[in-house]
Amino acid sequence: MLEGVKHVLLVLSGKGGVGKSTISTQLALALKESGFRVGLLDVDLCGPSVPYLLNLEDRDVHQSSDGWIPVFADKEQKLAVMSIGFLLKNKDNSIVWRGPKKTGMVKQFLTDVVWQNIDYLIIDTPPGTSDEHITVMENLRNVKCDGALIVTTPQAVAVDDVLREVTFCKKTGIHIFGIIENMSGFVCPSCSECTNIFSAGGGIALSKMVNVPFLAKVPIDPQVGKLAETGQSVLVTLPDSQVAQVFRKLVEELTQSKEA
Amino acid sequence: MADMPSDISQHCPGTASKDAGKASICTNCPNQMICASGISQQPDLTADLIKRKLSTVKHKLLVLSGKGGVGKSTITSLISRSLALNNPDINVAVLDIDICGPSQPRVLGVIGEQVHQSGSGWSPVLTDLYKTLARDVFNMLTDIYIDKPDAQLRGMIKQFLSEVDWGALDYLILDTPPGTSDEHLSATSYLKHAGITGVIIITTPQQVALLDVRKEIDFCRKVNIPILGVIENMSIFVCPNCNNSVEIFPALTGGGCVMAKELNVEFLGSLPLDPLLAKCCDEGKNFLTEIPESPTILTLQTIVQKIIDRCEKIKHPSEIDTT
């Protein structure tokens, strides 16, 4: 299982809508831009966002004798993507599955995709600490999962949920790389005043509370929101933005910690 | 709707299915005889119990969104607080069935409160204005339930719906977790039996949220529950410094309004982003009395009025035709 994958990174959050998928895709794109071969696996069965974010919505997964062939986001085939979104015929269709069927699907996603020699596999997960999670973790037990990136937003309501996720990781023995605080402040495009729309400081407070490194603070940038559907890296299109700087630093930290 | 063990085959048709006990996978199942006898397809006794327990509740509203973090809990608290504040004679209660990430105790300012057990069931926690019950109050149970999927979750929701002593209520608003998962299936099937008034769908303007919300609307139609309308949250942000309005989450596809039209559901309104609202939620303060002049509240009032009107129109919620 997952042969040919060097490093596995999980993107987790107990809370929904904090930007797991956006961070996962941008991180995948940033790693690709830095010259690595990357895989992105979207295991959110109820709300797969990755195909949309990378503008791969009408693409199909092909079946080969070895398993599913992922969809490639670029011509050089350096970014491979797999998501349940590719298997749904109509984008409005909902997946209404009970536990066992869902578990089976997640298992298949983890075992049956032919990744072929990639440096990093990023796994984008659904919100919560539900059965989809537990299945992912159980199946990853036999694989060298390098660790998890925990995504939160600054407000206490989100931090409450994310704290549960950290507890979950500690219980299941998953190493946590650190915490990323997303939607941290918004700079008004007309007056440059920074407003903390979703309060402030939740991520740092959480990292201190659970003794986990605080990795980065990602501000809200509507320009990044607009990148969705284009599948472009913030490093290429908005190289001077604060968000691009954050991702550059993140890639550096993640890749260095590996070599050390 | 009987509980199933967590280790059953993924091809199990489900105990409530008409193929139960008859599918090819069933031949090896130790429970095949039970399923084939048809017992499992008879109505769940708990569903009747829930129906009886909720018979004193006039309107049962479910707040749903396929997407997380769009403000389900915030809007649930705003709607319930607005209902209670502006209509002193009605009773409102909130039930938080988000078992993995309950937010109501914090948002309603009752964090750390305990639920009491009485002869007639669990007594909900009273806030300044009304009642709430969220799982977070069972802090001691958190550790037990955090990694127990499926059957336990379902049991928990069953307990929530059947064992809380609500008394006479005009509105019971249920706050749900994101997605179209097991919790939703359980809650909706029980509530359908008990007569659900309708569903309020929450979205944010950007396409990535709308994609998931479309799935939720599909889910509601699949399980045949009426949709009262769609609320778009976090629509625009007015900079407190220069009063310029900005679309923080750009509605590249027209946002919730266009989606509602496309899918033929009512659009209830757009709530603008107010940073003070997030702060009030974190501190558990009542936004309606703290900052009554906020534009978010003005919009909220019209939305709540629409919800009341629609609920009143449906005189006997338990008798509405959902087929």
UniProtKB/TrEMBL annotation, chain A:
<keyword id="KW-0067">ATP-binding</keyword>
<dbReference type="InterPro" id="IPR027417">
    <property type="entry name" value="P-loop_NTPase"/>
</dbReference>
<feature type="binding site">
    <location>
        <position position="191"/>
    </location>
    <ligand>
        <name>[4Fe-4S] cluster</name>
    </ligand>
</feature>
<dbReference type="GO" id="GO:0005930">
    <property type="term" value="C:axoneme"/>
</dbReference>
<dbReference type="InterPro" id="IPR019591">
    <property type="entry name" value="Mrp/NBP35_ATP-bd"/>
</dbReference>
<dbReference type="GO" id="GO:0005829">
    <property type="term" value="C:cytosol"/>
</dbReference>
<dbReference type="GO" id="GO:0140663">
    <property type="term" value="F:ATP-dependent FeS chaperone activity"/>
</dbReference>
<comment type="function">
    <text>Component of the cytosolic iron-sulfur (Fe/S) protein assembly (CIA) machinery. Required for maturation of extramitochondrial Fe-S proteins. The NUBP1-NUBP2 heterotetramer forms a Fe-S scaffold complex, mediating the de novo assembly of an Fe-S cluster and its transfer to target apoproteins. Negatively regulates cilium formation and structure.</text>
</comment>
<keyword id="KW-0547">Nucleotide-binding</keyword>
<dbReference type="GO" id="GO:0005524">
    <property type="term" value="F:ATP binding"/>
</dbReference>
<feature type="binding site">
    <location>
        <begin position="14"/>
        <end position="21"/>
    </location>
    <ligand>
        <name>ATP</name>
    </ligand>
</feature>
<keyword id="KW-0408">Iron</keyword>
<protein>
    <recommendedName>
        <fullName>Cytosolic Fe-S cluster assembly factor NUBP2 homolog</fullName>
    </recommendedName>
</protein>
<comment type="similarity">
    <text>Belongs to the Mrp/NBP35 ATP-binding proteins family. NUBP2/CFD1 subfamily.</text>
</comment>
<dbReference type="GO" id="GO:0005634">
    <property type="term" value="C:nucleus"/>
</dbReference>
<dbReference type="GO" id="GO:0051539">
    <property type="term" value="F:4 iron, 4 sulfur cluster binding"/>
</dbReference>
<keyword id="KW-0479">Metal-binding</keyword>
<feature type="binding site">
    <location>
        <position position="188"/>
    </location>
    <ligand>
        <name>[4Fe-4S] cluster</name>
    </ligand>
</feature>
<keyword id="KW-0411">Iron-sulfur</keyword>
<keyword id="KW-0963">Cytoplasm</keyword>
<dbReference type="InterPro" id="IPR033756">
    <property type="entry name" value="YlxH/NBP35"/>
</dbReference>
<dbReference type="InterPro" id="IPR028600">
    <property type="entry name" value="NUBP2/Cfd1_eukaryotes"/>
</dbReference>
UniProtKB/TrEMBL annotation, chain B:
<dbReference type="GO" id="GO:0005524">
    <property type="term" value="F:ATP binding"/>
</dbReference>
<dbReference type="InterPro" id="IPR019591">
    <property type="entry name" value="Mrp/NBP35_ATP-bd"/>
</dbReference>
<dbReference type="InterPro" id="IPR027417">
    <property type="entry name" value="P-loop_NTPase"/>
</dbReference>
<keyword id="KW-0547">Nucleotide-binding</keyword>
<dbReference type="GO" id="GO:0046872">
    <property type="term" value="F:metal ion binding"/>
</dbReference>
<keyword id="KW-0067">ATP-binding</keyword>
<dbReference type="Pfam" id="PF10609">
    <property type="entry name" value="ParA"/>
</dbReference>
<dbReference type="InterPro" id="IPR033756">
    <property type="entry name" value="YlxH/NBP35"/>
</dbReference>
<keyword id="KW-0408">Iron</keyword>
<protein>
    <submittedName>
        <fullName>Cytosolic Fe-S cluster assembly factor NUBP1 like protein</fullName>
    </submittedName>
</protein>
<dbReference type="GO" id="GO:0051539">
    <property type="term" value="F:4 iron, 4 sulfur cluster binding"/>
</dbReference>
<dbReference type="GO" id="GO:0140663">
    <property type="term" value="F:ATP-dependent FeS chaperone activity"/>
</dbReference>
<keyword id="KW-0004">4Fe-4S</keyword>
<dbReference type="InterPro" id="IPR000808">
    <property type="entry name" value="Mrp-like_CS"/>
</dbReference>
<keyword id="KW-0479">Metal-binding</keyword>
<dbReference type="GO" id="GO:0005829">
    <property type="term" value="C:cytosol"/>
</dbReference>
<keyword id="KW-0411">Iron-sulfur</keyword>
<dbReference type="GO" id="GO:0016226">
    <property type="term" value="P:iron-sulfur cluster assembly"/>
</dbReference>
